[in-house]
Design goal:
By secondary structure, the protein is an alpha/beta fold. Helix content is 38%, strand content 21%. It has 2 domains: 2-72 and 368-407, Urease, subunit C, domain 1, CATH 2.30.40.10; 75-361, Metal-dependent hydrolases (TIM Barrel). The structure holds N-(iminomethyl)-L-glutamic acid (NIG) and fe (iii) ion.
Length: 408
């Protein structure tokens, strides 16, 4: 059934913009008094509302009464929202001056969430994940990547990935799962880091493939997690098994991004510690540079050099990193707005980073732009000028969200 949605005061389509490099706001395509024709969850046509109405007289009209501004739904291409418990205790220590790594060494950090996630039964885990995913959806996020990485043994990683799959059936938002069994060496593993990665390759990834639980593999490359060389071996084998790769790279020390680029990862995420060398490597590659302002905010650290990355002509996406430790807030729009002010980003660069560039980080080419043929994932804000959205720094939320053409 054809459905015509509109009229919107402005439609920001995000169409026709480059995948890489800096963008100016005057490059943004804006359709005033626009409409979107949808059919079977896809966008069939975009244009002036009145023209579409004439052209498609049989379409059912979903009329928009007040002044509204339409954007593609946001894509959060990096989260860890399947977890048990919380780490408020860590956060209190951190704001009082302890570092993330000191807290981890003292028994807090990722391992604490592993313990709490292992203890959580499947229902509790599922309900927590659904609550976060649906909250994100209500704020205009229509696709969410979700990592495992708090199970850290085959049985518990599978529990997380199966929970993500189950949640995907129960929520309207699209969940894209990633195996992050290589988050850290589990404290109860009988062996070293290399042996643990081999255990994941032999005992977990084949099951994930078999059950079609995920087609993405992530690794945390860092002193406290895995070194570059073991990561290279691990990722090479995962790639041979057919997985798309992504890397937690250059969060505290540089190095991970080099591995990501060399192996042809779809994205390298974090990059707070990236220097000139790393920026240039990323810029020359097809690996999307994903910046995570929520982690910088949560850890009280500097942001990743988003401006420099864009100027060097990298593809920059912005994601929330929503997790119970370093990034507990989970407000993607707020984080992107604050990042823009600190890093001097244009509105076009921010919206690109939250939509079609983030889709690229997930290897998805069917969303992130309001154009014919794309999935009809959209959100509308109660304003008349697109600049108001970042101006209110996350306080202005979308009043309407469409997932596959349906109001949610
Ligand atoms: O992306 N850096 C490693 N992993 C997560 C944090 C996970 C946690 O602290 O629980 C991140 O920030
Ligand atoms: Fe992360």
């Amino acid at each position: 059934m054809e459905k015509l949605i509109g009229p919107f005061k402005q439609i920001l389509t995000l169409a026709g913009l480059s995948l890489k490099g800096s963008l100016h706001d005057d490059q943004l395509e804006i359709i005033t008094d626009g409409g979107v024709l949808t059919e079977n969850g896809l966008i069939k046509a975009v244009g002036k509302f009145d023209n579409l109405r004439q052209e498609f007289p049989d379409a059912v009209v979903e009329e928009i009464h007040n002044d509204q501004l339409l954007l593609p739904g946001f894509i959060d291409c990096h989260t860890h929202i399947c977890f048990g418990g919380n780490r408020a205790k860590d956060y209190a220590l951190r704001i009082a001056g302890k570092t993330y790594l000191e807290i981890a060494k003292a028994g807090g950090g990722i391992w604490d969430t592993v313990t709490q996630t292992r203890l959580a039964d499947e229902q509790t885990l599922l309900q927590g994940l659904l609550k976060r995913a649906n909250h994100h959806l209500s704020e205009g996020v229509t696709t969410i990547e979700v990592k495992s990485g708090y199970g850290l043994n085959a049985e518990q990683e599978l529990k997380q990935l199966r929970t993500i799959r189950e949640a995907g059936k129960l929520t309207k938002v699209d969940l894209v799962s990633t195996c992050l069994a290589a988050h850290m060496l589990p404290k109860d593993f009988d062996g070293d880091k290399k042996q643990y990665l081999q255990y994941v390759l032999d005992g977990l990834l084949p099951v994930i493939r078999e059950e079609k639980l995920s087609n993405r593999v992530d690794i945390f490359i860092e002193e406290s997690a895995f070194d570059m060389e073991s990561a290279q071996t691990y990722l090479t084998e995962a790639k041979q098994m057919g997985f798309d790769l992504t890397v937690h790279a250059d969060q505290f020390t540089a190095g991970g991004s080099k591995v990501a680029v060399e192996i042809g990862a779809v994205s390298a995420d974090h990059l707070e510690a990236s220097g000139e060398k790393e920026l240039n490597l990323l810029a020359k590659s097809n690996t999307v540079a994903v910046v995570l302002p929520g982690a910088a905010l949560g850890l009280g650290m500097s942001y990743a050099p988003a401006r420099k990355l864009l100027d060097a002509s990298a593809t920059v996406a912005i994601a929330s990193d929503w997790n119970p430790g370093s990034a507990p807030m989970g407000d993607l729009l707020l984080q992107a707005s604050v990042l823009a002010a600190a890093e001097k980003l244009t509105t076009a660069e921010v919206f690109a980073g939250l939509t079609y560039r983030a889709a690229k980080a997930l290897n998805l080419d069917d969303r992130g732009i309001i154009a014919a043929g794309m999935i009809a994932d959209m959100q509308a804000y109660p304003c008349t000028d697109y600049r108001e959205i970042l101006y209110y720094q996350g306080k202005l939320k979308p009043g309407m969200v469409w997932k596959k053409g349906k109001r949610v």
